[in-house]
Specification:
Blueprint (H helix, E strand, L loop, with lengths): L1 H18 L2 H22 L8 H13 L1 H21 L1 H7 L4 H30 L7 H29 L2 H18 L12 H7 L3 H7 L13 H28 L1
Helix pairs in contact: 1-6, 2-3, 2-4, 2-6, 3-10, 4-6, 4-7, 4-8, 7-8, 7-11, 10-11
Protein backbone atom coordinates (compact mmCIF):
# COMPACT_ATOMS: atom_id res chain seq x y z
CA UNK A 1 0.00 0.00 0.00
CA UNK A 2 2.80 2.40 0.94
CA UNK A 3 4.64 1.58 -2.29
CA UNK A 4 1.53 2.29 -4.35
CA UNK A 5 1.00 5.60 -2.56
CA UNK A 6 4.63 6.54 -3.14
CA UNK A 7 4.31 5.81 -6.89
CA UNK A 8 1.22 8.03 -7.09
CA UNK A 9 3.10 10.79 -5.27
CA UNK A 10 6.03 10.48 -7.69
CA UNK A 11 3.71 10.69 -10.70
CA UNK A 12 2.00 13.74 -9.18
CA UNK A 13 5.43 15.31 -8.59
CA UNK A 14 6.35 14.78 -12.25
CA UNK A 15 3.01 16.18 -13.42
CA UNK A 16 3.64 19.33 -11.39
CA UNK A 17 7.06 19.65 -12.99
CA UNK A 18 5.48 19.27 -16.44
CA UNK A 19 2.86 21.90 -15.64
CA UNK A 20 5.64 24.40 -15.03
CA UNK A 21 7.25 23.67 -18.39
CA UNK A 22 5.59 26.16 -20.75
CA UNK A 23 7.55 24.72 -23.68
CA UNK A 24 5.57 21.48 -23.52
CA UNK A 25 2.27 23.36 -23.38
CA UNK A 26 3.12 25.62 -26.32
CA UNK A 27 4.71 23.06 -28.65
CA UNK A 28 2.39 20.25 -27.60
CA UNK A 29 -0.97 22.08 -27.52
CA UNK A 30 -0.88 25.53 -29.14
CA UNK A 31 1.65 24.94 -31.93
CA UNK A 32 0.12 21.86 -33.68
CA UNK A 33 -3.42 23.28 -33.63
CA UNK A 34 -2.30 26.71 -34.79
CA UNK A 35 -0.10 25.29 -37.57
CA UNK A 36 -2.87 22.95 -38.70
CA UNK A 37 -5.29 25.88 -38.95
CA UNK A 38 -2.88 28.20 -40.77
CA UNK A 39 -1.54 25.63 -43.24
CA UNK A 40 -5.07 24.40 -43.99
CA UNK A 41 -6.28 27.92 -44.72
CA UNK A 42 -3.32 28.61 -46.98
CA UNK A 43 -3.46 25.26 -48.80
CA UNK A 44 -7.21 25.19 -49.39
CA UNK A 45 -7.60 28.79 -50.53
CA UNK A 46 -7.69 27.90 -54.24
CA UNK A 47 -8.59 24.21 -54.08
CA UNK A 48 -11.96 22.77 -55.24
CA UNK A 49 -14.36 22.20 -52.36
CA UNK A 50 -14.51 18.42 -52.89
CA UNK A 51 -10.72 18.10 -52.36
CA UNK A 52 -10.50 20.21 -49.21
CA UNK A 53 -11.44 17.51 -46.64
CA UNK A 54 -8.65 15.23 -47.87
CA UNK A 55 -6.09 18.05 -47.77
CA UNK A 56 -7.19 19.12 -44.29
CA UNK A 57 -7.02 15.50 -43.12
CA UNK A 58 -3.51 15.13 -44.50
CA UNK A 59 -2.40 18.29 -42.69
CA UNK A 60 -4.06 17.07 -39.49
CA UNK A 61 -2.16 13.78 -39.66
CA UNK A 62 1.12 15.64 -40.15
CA UNK A 63 0.49 18.02 -37.26
CA UNK A 64 -0.52 15.18 -34.94
CA UNK A 65 3.15 14.15 -34.92
CA UNK A 66 4.13 17.46 -33.35
CA UNK A 67 2.60 16.36 -30.04
CA UNK A 68 4.73 13.26 -29.30
CA UNK A 69 7.84 14.93 -30.72
CA UNK A 70 7.39 18.10 -28.68
CA UNK A 71 6.31 16.42 -25.44
CA UNK A 72 8.76 13.51 -25.40
CA UNK A 73 11.71 15.03 -27.23
CA UNK A 74 11.80 18.74 -26.45
CA UNK A 75 9.79 18.78 -23.22
CA UNK A 76 11.27 15.69 -21.60
CA UNK A 77 14.78 16.56 -22.78
CA UNK A 78 14.58 20.07 -21.35
CA UNK A 79 13.37 18.91 -17.93
CA UNK A 80 15.56 15.84 -17.57
CA UNK A 81 18.76 17.53 -18.77
CA UNK A 82 18.27 20.26 -16.15
CA UNK A 83 17.80 17.59 -13.48
CA UNK A 84 20.93 15.75 -14.59
CA UNK A 85 22.95 18.96 -14.68
CA UNK A 86 21.86 19.77 -11.09
CA UNK A 87 22.44 16.21 -9.87
CA UNK A 88 18.80 15.56 -8.98
CA UNK A 89 18.78 11.83 -9.98
CA UNK A 90 21.92 11.22 -7.90
CA UNK A 91 20.44 12.93 -4.83
CA UNK A 92 17.23 10.93 -5.19
CA UNK A 93 19.31 7.75 -5.39
CA UNK A 94 21.07 8.74 -2.15
CA UNK A 95 17.65 9.11 -0.49
CA UNK A 96 16.77 5.57 -1.53
CA UNK A 97 14.63 6.35 -4.58
CA UNK A 98 15.48 3.88 -7.32
CA UNK A 99 16.10 5.14 -10.83
CA UNK A 100 13.55 2.66 -12.19
CA UNK A 101 10.82 4.19 -9.97
CA UNK A 102 11.82 7.67 -11.06
CA UNK A 103 11.76 6.74 -14.74
CA UNK A 104 8.40 4.97 -14.43
CA UNK A 105 6.88 8.10 -12.89
CA UNK A 106 8.31 10.25 -15.70
CA UNK A 107 6.96 7.91 -18.38
CA UNK A 108 3.47 7.81 -16.87
CA UNK A 109 3.35 11.59 -16.33
CA UNK A 110 4.49 12.37 -19.87
CA UNK A 111 2.03 9.92 -21.38
CA UNK A 112 -0.78 11.48 -19.35
CA UNK A 113 0.17 14.89 -20.75
CA UNK A 114 0.36 13.45 -24.28
CA UNK A 115 -3.11 11.94 -23.90
CA UNK A 116 -4.52 15.31 -22.82
CA UNK A 117 -2.85 16.97 -25.81
CA UNK A 118 -4.31 14.40 -28.22
CA UNK A 119 -7.80 14.90 -26.77
CA UNK A 120 -7.54 18.69 -27.16
CA UNK A 121 -6.20 18.22 -30.69
CA UNK A 122 -9.10 15.90 -31.57
CA UNK A 123 -11.76 18.24 -30.16
CA UNK A 124 -10.22 21.23 -31.97
CA UNK A 125 -10.27 19.45 -35.35
CA UNK A 126 -13.74 17.97 -34.90
CA UNK A 127 -15.25 21.36 -34.04
CA UNK A 128 -13.27 23.71 -36.28
CA UNK A 129 -11.71 21.71 -39.14
CA UNK A 130 -13.26 19.87 -42.07
CA UNK A 131 -11.58 16.53 -41.37
CA UNK A 132 -12.69 13.28 -43.00
CA UNK A 133 -14.32 10.77 -40.67
CA UNK A 134 -11.83 7.91 -40.12
CA UNK A 135 -12.33 4.18 -40.15
CA UNK A 136 -12.00 2.74 -36.63
CA UNK A 137 -8.99 0.64 -37.62
CA UNK A 138 -7.24 3.67 -39.12
CA UNK A 139 -7.84 5.76 -35.98
CA UNK A 140 -6.50 2.97 -33.76
CA UNK A 141 -3.46 2.62 -36.04
CA UNK A 142 -2.76 6.36 -35.77
CA UNK A 143 -3.04 6.39 -31.97
CA UNK A 144 -0.79 3.35 -31.55
CA UNK A 145 1.74 4.92 -33.92
CA UNK A 146 1.74 8.23 -32.04
CA UNK A 147 2.37 6.54 -28.69
CA UNK A 148 5.08 4.35 -30.23
CA UNK A 149 6.77 7.43 -31.75
CA UNK A 150 6.50 9.12 -28.36
CA UNK A 151 8.24 6.24 -26.58
CA UNK A 152 11.11 6.16 -29.10
CA UNK A 153 11.64 9.91 -28.80
CA UNK A 154 11.56 9.76 -25.02
CA UNK A 155 14.29 7.11 -24.98
CA UNK A 156 16.34 9.10 -27.50
CA UNK A 157 15.94 12.30 -25.48
CA UNK A 158 16.94 10.47 -22.29
CA UNK A 159 20.07 9.13 -23.95
CA UNK A 160 21.11 12.51 -25.37
CA UNK A 161 20.64 14.19 -21.98
CA UNK A 162 22.79 11.54 -20.27
CA UNK A 163 25.52 11.85 -22.90
CA UNK A 164 25.93 15.63 -22.70
CA UNK A 165 24.63 16.23 -19.14
CA UNK A 166 24.09 19.92 -19.87
CA UNK A 167 20.79 21.63 -20.61
CA UNK A 168 22.31 23.99 -23.18
CA UNK A 169 23.91 21.22 -25.26
CA UNK A 170 20.91 18.88 -24.98
CA UNK A 171 18.36 21.54 -25.85
CA UNK A 172 20.40 22.88 -28.76
CA UNK A 173 20.87 19.42 -30.30
CA UNK A 174 17.26 18.37 -29.77
CA UNK A 175 15.80 21.62 -31.11
CA UNK A 176 17.96 21.30 -34.25
CA UNK A 177 16.89 17.68 -34.73
CA UNK A 178 13.26 18.55 -34.05
CA UNK A 179 12.95 21.11 -36.84
CA UNK A 180 15.13 19.07 -39.20
CA UNK A 181 12.84 16.06 -38.75
CA UNK A 182 9.77 18.23 -39.28
CA UNK A 183 11.17 19.38 -42.63
CA UNK A 184 12.24 15.86 -43.69
CA UNK A 185 8.92 14.23 -42.86
CA UNK A 186 6.69 16.80 -44.59
CA UNK A 187 5.38 18.59 -41.52
CA UNK A 188 6.39 22.12 -42.52
CA UNK A 189 4.16 22.51 -45.57
CA UNK A 190 6.64 20.93 -48.01
CA UNK A 191 5.88 17.31 -48.90
CA UNK A 192 8.69 14.78 -48.73
CA UNK A 193 8.62 14.03 -52.47
CA UNK A 194 9.39 17.71 -53.13
CA UNK A 195 12.71 17.46 -51.31
CA UNK A 196 16.05 16.58 -52.99
CA UNK A 197 16.60 12.85 -53.57
CA UNK A 198 19.20 12.55 -50.80
CA UNK A 199 16.79 14.00 -48.25
CA UNK A 200 14.02 11.75 -49.53
CA UNK A 201 16.18 8.69 -48.87
CA UNK A 202 16.86 9.93 -45.35
CA UNK A 203 13.15 10.56 -44.79
CA UNK A 204 12.32 6.98 -45.82
CA UNK A 205 14.13 5.71 -42.71
CA UNK A 206 11.76 7.66 -40.42
CA UNK A 207 8.29 6.31 -39.45
CA UNK A 208 6.94 9.88 -39.17
CA UNK A 209 7.31 10.24 -42.95
CA UNK A 210 4.72 7.54 -43.58
CA UNK A 211 2.28 8.91 -41.01
CA UNK A 212 2.57 12.40 -42.47
CA UNK A 213 2.42 11.45 -46.15
CA UNK A 214 0.66 8.07 -46.49
CA UNK A 215 -1.85 7.57 -43.68
CA UNK A 216 -4.39 9.77 -45.45
CA UNK A 217 -4.60 7.09 -48.17
CA UNK A 218 -6.29 4.61 -45.82
CA UNK A 219 -7.79 7.09 -43.32
CA UNK A 220 -11.29 6.05 -44.37
CA UNK A 221 -10.39 2.39 -44.80
CA UNK A 222 -8.79 0.42 -47.60
CA UNK A 223 -5.53 -1.50 -48.09
CA UNK A 224 -2.09 -0.18 -47.24
CA UNK A 225 1.39 -1.72 -47.35
CA UNK A 226 2.71 -1.31 -43.80
CA UNK A 227 6.07 -2.97 -44.45
CA UNK A 228 8.11 0.21 -45.21
CA UNK A 229 6.50 1.87 -42.16
CA UNK A 230 7.43 -1.05 -39.88
CA UNK A 231 10.95 -1.21 -41.30
CA UNK A 232 11.40 2.50 -40.60
CA UNK A 233 10.22 1.96 -37.01
CA UNK A 234 12.68 -0.91 -36.55
CA UNK A 235 15.53 1.16 -37.99
CA UNK A 236 14.79 4.20 -35.84
CA UNK A 237 14.35 2.01 -32.78
CA UNK A 238 17.68 0.30 -33.46
CA UNK A 239 19.52 3.62 -33.84
CA UNK A 240 17.90 4.88 -30.64
CA UNK A 241 18.91 1.68 -28.85
CA UNK A 242 22.53 2.11 -29.91
CA UNK A 243 22.57 5.72 -28.68
CA UNK A 244 21.01 4.60 -25.37
CA UNK A 245 23.63 1.89 -24.90
CA UNK A 246 26.38 4.44 -25.63
CA UNK A 247 24.91 6.80 -23.02
CA UNK A 248 24.85 3.98 -20.44
CA UNK A 249 28.45 3.05 -21.23
CA UNK A 250 29.53 6.67 -20.92
CA UNK A 251 27.69 7.01 -17.59
CA UNK A 252 29.44 3.93 -16.20
CA UNK A 253 32.83 5.29 -17.28
CA UNK A 254 32.03 8.64 -15.67
CA UNK A 255 31.17 6.92 -12.40
Amino acid sequence: MKKKKFCVQMIWYELRNLNGNLMSHFFGIVFPNLMSLLISKASCAQVPAELRPRIVTSIMLSMSLVMPMATMFLGYGALYSQEVEKGVPLRMHLFGIRESSLMLAKIVAHFILLTVEILIFAVFHILLMDVQKPAVSSLVCLLVSLYAVALVFMVLSHAIANIFRRFSYTFGIEMSLYFSLMVLTGMMGVRTEQLPKVLQRMAETLPMTYISNDFVDFWQGGPYNFMPFIQAFVFMGAVTGVILLFSMWKSRRRQ
